[in-house]
Amino acid sequence: MSLRSRRNKTQPRVLFRHQIKAMAAAADSPPTRSQALSGMSQVYASEPAIPDLFTSQPLIVDMLETESSQLQQKTIDECLPFLSGEQHAGKCNQHGVPRLDKQRHVKFLHKQLGRLPPQMAAADPSRPWFFYWSLAALTLLGEDVSIYRERLVETVRPIQNVSGGFGGGFGQDSHLATTYATVLALMLVGGEEAYKVVDRRAMWEWLCSLKQADGGFQMVVGGEEDVRGAYCASVIISLLGIPLETSPDSAAYAAGHKDLFSGLGEWVGRCQTYEGGVAAIPGIEAHGAYAFCALGCLSILDAPHRSIPKYMNMPQLIAWLSSRQYAPEGGFSGRTNKLVDGCYSHWVGGCWPLIQAALSGPNSGKARSADQQAADTGSLFSRNGLIRYILCCCQDQTLRGGLRDKPSKYSDAYHTCYVLSGLSSAQHKWTLRAARPTGSAGGADEWEAMPYVEDEQVFNEDDRIGTTHPVYVIPQHKVEAAWEYYASKMGF
Q1: Residues 6+ apart with CB under 8 A from 139
Q2: Phi and psi dihedrals of 211, rounded to 5?
Q3: For residue range 291-329, what is the model confidence (pLDDT) as tens digits?
Q4: How many CA atoms lie within 13 A of 467 on its CB side?
Q5: How many other C-beta atoms can be found within 10 angstroms of the C-beta atom of residue 310?
Q6: Could you confirm whether 344 is annotated as catalytic?
Q7: Burial level of 456, CB count in 10 A (0-12/13-18/19+)?
Q8: Of 132, 253, 326, 344, which is the active-site residue?
Q9: How many other CB atoms sit within 10 Å of the CB of residue 172?
Q10: Which of 208, 271, 297, 343 is catalytic?
Q11: Partner of 419 for a Cys bridge, out of 180, 245, 342, 424, CB 3.0 to 4.6 A?
């Protein structure tokens, strides 16, 4: 038997949807539930704002069934009734999209900042994340979170260690993830009382101890080193105005890294995989959250149009990110061959403003190339597909409120925060108005957010939410207020 014959016998068959229907008709088989849902979705298929791709079963189906493909089809069948408007009868606009129930979600988030039940004791190390997720989401929904300032300050003060950084709870080791969440929460409530909580000298000493000889950062002293560390450390250093010089007694200094950002871009660049995405560390699987962390870190090291192309293979990265949006769901997956998840509305969706800025550069009125001008127009992903997925599938329609990753799941603070962040990115277009001087680290570029108006809008204007900085994931004015405060402090 020839190699070609063997390949033909074993190679999976790929059929188009019309071929499958023809085969089913020839066998006189009854229509499946999925086909019936496909027919119902045609109610909204005529709307130009929502392409047919997001209203019906996939046009191409791989006939080789695997556990992954079965789970994918189950997810599609679960989402389609929501996306077709079937689950929101009488509550949809002309595009079949329900409204954003802001007040119910606000009530849910305030509850997350109250007294939690005893079974949440196991989540004590994640307390700073609850603060950040809830406060960030409330801010996006237009709530004034400064009312939580005093409570937050008194809660996080005891979890700051004298050696620098914040633990998850009292007596716990400082960790970059919980320090990042705590710092962002403090910036969200704002005010001198919140800013003064952070011991910046101790923070600097702790960050120097986390800086590694290869340029990256550990998450905790003696712990894992990954792209999360690169991003969290960069955000903390930038927001708090931490001096960049490394401590002479640190391992990084001995390895030739005289400042905290030295070698970091090169280390992040090594995390890009053969697929084009970004892994936690060099040599493992690409993941959407790590892609955002990488792009966010690089956008702090230098302006994104200089730093991202310098350290990333842009065509491969764009191809991988584009492959993360699925149809008909409209949401993003975090990895190849994985299902959509609402949180990647932010982790992947949040990459696109940074990619757009990397392609188009600053729009400061200076002469720009034809490629830069072309990059200013259109969208690199289906914004309406994502918005529809979020408003249809991610809203918890029970009295509980909040947002979730997909219809069958429960809402939580994590998904509520990052789904809303993704919704904000889809509703608005961020433009890099002016870039900092070449070689100036710290993230102080000038960004501008405007409503995205190039496509027909599928959501009601009342459902538009606030904006969040594409790098720091808190409102831009909160970032600028922190910069102004810490810039006024000489030294530590």
Answers
A1: 145, 188, 466, 468, 474, 475, 478
A2: -65, 130
A3: 999 999 999 999 999 999 999 999 999 999 999 999 999
A4: 19
A5: 14
A6: yes
A7: exposed
A8: 344
A9: 16
A10: 343
A11: 342
CA distances from 252 to 113, 211, 228, 248, 280 (A): 39, 6, 18, 9, 20
Q: Crossing angle for the helix pair 476-487 and 176-189, nearest 10 degrees?
A: 100
CA 116-119-124 angle, 5° bins: 70
Average pLDDT over residues 214-235: 97
77 annotated active-site:
no
Which pLDDT does position 12 carry in this prediction?
39
Q: What is the pLDDT of residues 381-412, one digit of tens each?
A: 999 999 999 999 999 988 899 999 999 899 99
Rounded Cα–Cα distance for residues 125 and 369 (Å): 49
Distance CA 384, CA 91 (A): 18
Is 452 catalytic? The answer is no
- 139 to each of 142, 287, 403, 451, 476, how far by Cα in Å? 5, 27, 15, 18, 12
Cα 53 to Cα 329: distance, rounded to the nearest angstrom: 9
Peptide bond into 328 cis (omega under 30): yes
What tokens does 192 get?
A: 């001198």
Residue of 199, 302, 405, 463 marked catalytic:
405
117: number of Cβ within 10 Å = 6
Catalytic residue among 17, 335, 409, 433: 335
pLDDT in the model for residue 371: 65
Alpha-carbon distance of 121 to 409, in angstroms, equals 22
**Residue 149 appears among annotated catalytic residues:** no
The catalytic position among 88, 324, 346, 415 is 415
Give the DSSP H or E segment for 448.
strand 446-451
In the residue annotation, 287 being an active-site residue is answered as: yes
Active site residue 412: yes
Active site residue 343: yes
CA distance 353 to 28: 50
CA-wise closest residue to 401 among 138, 75, 92: 138
